[in-house]
User: Which sequence fits this backbone?
């Protein structure tokens, strides 16, 4: 069974440019998460979806970040415009509701120059 | 206050030896869950083990066991018979709230484990 797939793996952009990350969760997983991981830190939740509904987006900087999960499957996280401080790894994870285990993708490493 | 504290930035262990990675947590919620994840250099977070606050016994998963001391608010990970492939970052994490669903989880800053041949 395929795991959580994220693309791209690496992205380098200039500041003020837009960028988008894509996540394909494990089939049948109705819960999807986007995490931000700064260098030397643990992941921090940006947004959590239950199917297509964003049930926790309190940590998402809504002035420049947006996310969507159309049809409750794939998800896209967008930053516009990107800032130097956005350089980090963006992790996507998915789980079955009421499960203690979440499965993570390999992440997208963003570098803003 | 930090919800999850991992005080060991880096640890070394000899191959085939056991190692303990420390984790303390802070919560006033009586219902919570504690996780350990492994993050190799490839970047993927790999779930290792879970302990619920009401679980009577310490969790074990193969070579991994969680030394849960509720009164001390500690949830140390013990890896027995270390292997070279165990070299990675290890993150302790906590979920607060009701139910077993994987909701918002707070991660520690991690411990880098290096296994020496």
Assistant:
């Amino acid at each position: 069974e395929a795991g959580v797939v994220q693309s791209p793996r690496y992205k380098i952009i200039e500041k003020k440019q837009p960028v988008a990350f894509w996540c394909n969760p494990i089939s049948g997983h109705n819960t999807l998460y986007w995490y931000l991981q700064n260098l030397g830190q643990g992941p921090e939740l940006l947004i959590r979806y239950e199917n297509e509904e964003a049930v926790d987006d309190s940590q998402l900087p809504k002035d420049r970040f947006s996310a969507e999960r159309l049809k409750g499957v794939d998800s896209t996280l967008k930053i516009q415009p990107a800032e130097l401080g956005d350089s980090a790894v963006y992790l996507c994870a998915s789980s079955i509701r009421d499960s203690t285990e979440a499965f993570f993708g390999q992440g997208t490493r963003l570098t803003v120059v | 206050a930090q919800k999850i504290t991992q005080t060991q930035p880096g640890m070394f262990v000899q191959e085939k030896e056991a190692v303990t990675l420390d984790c303390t947590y802070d919560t006033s919620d009586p219902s919570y869950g504690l996780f350990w994840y492994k993050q190799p250099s490839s970047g993927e977070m790999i779930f290792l083990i879970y302990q619920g606050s009401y679980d009577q016994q310490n969790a074990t998963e193969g070579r991994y066991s969680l030394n849960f001391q509720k009164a001390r608010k500690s949830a140390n990970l013990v890896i027995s018979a270390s292997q070279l492939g165990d070299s990675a970052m290890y993150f302790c994490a906590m979920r607060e709230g009701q139910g077993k669903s994987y909701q918002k989880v707070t991660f520690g800053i991690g411990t880098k484990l290096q296994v020496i041949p």
Q: What stands out?
A: Chain B has a mean pLDDT of 92. Chain B touches chain A at residues 4, 33, 35, 37, 42-47, 50, 52, 91, 93, 99-105, 107-110 (CB under 8 Å). Chain B has no helices and twelve strands. Residues 25 and 79 of chain B are 20 Å apart (CA to CA).
